[in-house]
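Whiteboard transcription, Tuesday session. T.W. wrote the structure tokens on the left side:
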């Protein structure tokens, strides 16, 4: 094998997984694609199935298993957090406002990274804070690209409307003025994973006195640029 690591069983397991990358395969298909003996291919596929790295489709063919998606998601989240620090610090420095990164978790959103304004009046959202999905520009971003049924459910009791979210999708950014908290304004933009799905929202927030009642005019471009840098890091995989 060209790609030999010196650990034969791992090399063969990697061959099986690589063969399934192009789609479902029967045992005969696996044998043909990998060059492995039939009993070896079967033994490895079943062992990988035990660890959920391989699964079966409705026809009983081997397919890539759910564990791979879980590991990929975890790797993506780690990459996002590893990149977030310097990106949020830069965003804070260019806007002069506190910057945050939010991910959705069920009916809530969680602040997973932040860079606080160093002095003066500021909107402080500590890392780990759980906020509702019913108000705020980050909630609008995390909701706007959801599939219709989930979007409809999420709008019940929300401080924003379907029309507002349509505008968010068109512009590519969201703003809120006193929506989550009186006196606080914010601007947010979507961070997209490799499949272009929205995986997080990057935001700046601060007092309306500084951000005005049109915070997007002041800060939308800086927030969009920060979101693009995070999206690029996820796509590059480093």
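and on the right, the sequence the group agreed on:
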């Amino acid at each position: 094998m060209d790609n030999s690591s010196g650990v034969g069983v791992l090399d063969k397991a990697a061959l099986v997984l690589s063969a399934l990358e192009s789609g479902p395969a029967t045992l005969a298909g696996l044998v043909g694609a990998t060059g492995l003996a039939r009993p070896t291919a079967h033994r490895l596929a079943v062992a990988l199935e035990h660890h959920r790295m391989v699964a079966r489709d409705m026809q009983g063919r081997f397919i890539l298993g759910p564990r791979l998606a879980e590991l990929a998601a975890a790797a993506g989240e780690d990459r996002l957090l590893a990149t977030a620090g310097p990106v949020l610090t830069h965003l804070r420095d260019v806007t002069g406002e506190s910057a945050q990164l939010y991910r959705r978790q069920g009916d809530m959103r969680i602040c997973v990274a932040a860079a606080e304004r160093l002095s003066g009046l500021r909107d402080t959202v500590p890392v780990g804070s759980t906020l509702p999905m019913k108000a705020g520009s980050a909630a609008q971003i995390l909701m706007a690209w959801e599939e219709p049924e989930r979007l409809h459910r999420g709008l019940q009791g929300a401080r924003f409307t379907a029309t507002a979210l349509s505008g968010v999708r068109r512009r590519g950014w969201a703003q809120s003025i006193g929506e989550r908290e009186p006196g606080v304004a914010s601007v947010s933009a979507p961070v997209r994973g490799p499949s272009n799905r929205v995986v997080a929202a990057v935001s700046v927030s601060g007092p309306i006195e500084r951000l005005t009642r049109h915070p997007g005019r002041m800060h939308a471009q800086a927030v969009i640029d920060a979101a693009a840098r995070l999206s690029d890091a996820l796509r590059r995989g480093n």
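Someone added at the bottom: The first strand starts at residue 54 and ends at 56.
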